[in-house]
Amino acid sequence: MSSNQDFMGRVVGAASQGAVGAVVAATLSAVTEPIVNNVLVNRVPLGTAIAELDGEKVKNFFKTTMSTNFIKFPFFEATSVIMNGVDLSPTLRGSVTGAVFCTTTLPITNFRFRKSMGMPITASSLYQAYLPTVLRDILYGIVRNKVMTAMIERNPEFARTNAGRFVNMFATVVAACVLSAPGNELRGYCLQPPNRALPFGEFFKPDKFVRSTSIGALIMAISLGVGTLATPQVEKLWHTIRAYLQSNPLSYLLIVLCVLDNILAARRCSEEEKKKTKKLTA
Fold first, then answer.
1. Could you tell me which of 66, 121, 177, 231 has the fewest CB atoms within 10 Å of its CB?
2. pLDDT for res 140
């Protein structure tokens, strides 16, 4: 029973790490991602991509990055912890993690990409470029598993400190992003608008590849590195809450009632907004 509780604590801790990373990444990505995507897909110079950046679009895209990151980041981190509990080789474990993550979240990824590029969103576009994306995510999952294991084994004592958690995660994510970058480049090639598609020989430019990979890797590494600092505190909080709930079973009922009350309140607000809109348009 206690081992199950510890496992759940690790899953919650990993999800919280992803949630903190999601906030940091959303803040950074709202500005950098439209620039990176413009360089990656349209192959424009960096100066042109920055000049084409629009403040209003950045503000609107921040809302998109925040909502999508809050799904993707915690989901990957929680899936990774769950898969760590399965008796598989690091390579196979990373492959399964990457494939599950990509298949589940690709519609969100493509929705966000098309929003950042101002491209139309259709049902058929949500699974566009599946093969290069799943290749990228499998490579990312494998490298993360192998590098993180090596980093922890190199100095277990350091890995238990806040500095160790940040450094190990930062180095691991940079390595994973860089080594999976060819899949991302192939994804960018497949996502080109048909009327402006370039042949691969013209599309691939080493300087643009290095630039987009570096920016993306740094955003991910900083975000998840910061997220690791919250994990121990969230795990402690989780164990405290769980112990309280077990000693006070009535608390479960109160939580359910609170959730229901919030759902009903949100529904009432939505209905009132609709009535106000009807009155204004009448």
1. 121
2. 92
